[in-house]
């Protein structure tokens, strides 16, 4: 089975991280995620992340470090979820694919109903506690 490459941002504003809840009608509807989306062919991970954040949230960020990559097998698809640490710059927060957003403290991440692929990323963030 092909693997879908998905890039997401761990977007920091001071000591909080942005979580977004996927609209009910989408795949994994109702789950919270780190915003981002699929990497198009011939697109760099950074360009894909900037494009998705602009399209989905009208948001600008500064992309910093590669944080972690997770391979996760869902029922119908395998995804490679590539997470980058980002610094929030500004956003209009016009919600297209989500119906709620929240800025969350590192230690509260696991109290949200996270997309399964995101759980190991949240656990690593909590373990590192460097932010
Ligand atoms: N953006 C994002 N997607 C994630 C995360 N975790 C996770 O499992 N995914 C999954 O990775 C895929 C990302 O695609 P996408 O967000 O661009 O979704 P899409 O609207 O293009 O496609 P769709 O038809 O699957 O809804 C989705 O299937 C989504 O459920 C995450 O933290 N961020």
SSE blueprint:
Blueprint: E1 3-13, E2 16-22, E3 32-33, E4 36-38, H1 45-57, E5 59-73, E6 78-91, E7 98-105, H2 119-128
Parallel strand pairs: 1-6
Antiparallel strand pairs: 1-2, 1-4, 2-3, 2-7, 5-6
Bound molecules: 8-OXO-guanosine-5'-triphosphate (8GT).
Descriptive notes:
The chain is α+β, with helices and mostly antiparallel strands and 131 residues long. The longest helix is centred in the middle third of the chain and has 13 residues. It has a single domain, classed as Nucleoside Triphosphate Pyrophosphohydrolase. β5 and β6 form a beta hairpin. The chain starts with a strand and ends with a helix. Strands 1, 2, 3, 4, 5, 6 and 7 form a 7-stranded mixed β-sheet that branches. Bound molecules: 8-OXO-guanosine-5'-triphosphate. The site of 8-OXO-guanosine-5'-triphosphate has 17 residues, from β1, β4 and β6.
Bound molecules: 8-OXO-guanosine-5'-triphosphate
Q: Low-confidence runs (pLDDT<50, min 5 residues)?
A: none
Structural class: alpha+beta
CATH architecture label name: Alpha-Beta Complex
The first-level CATH class is given as Alpha Beta
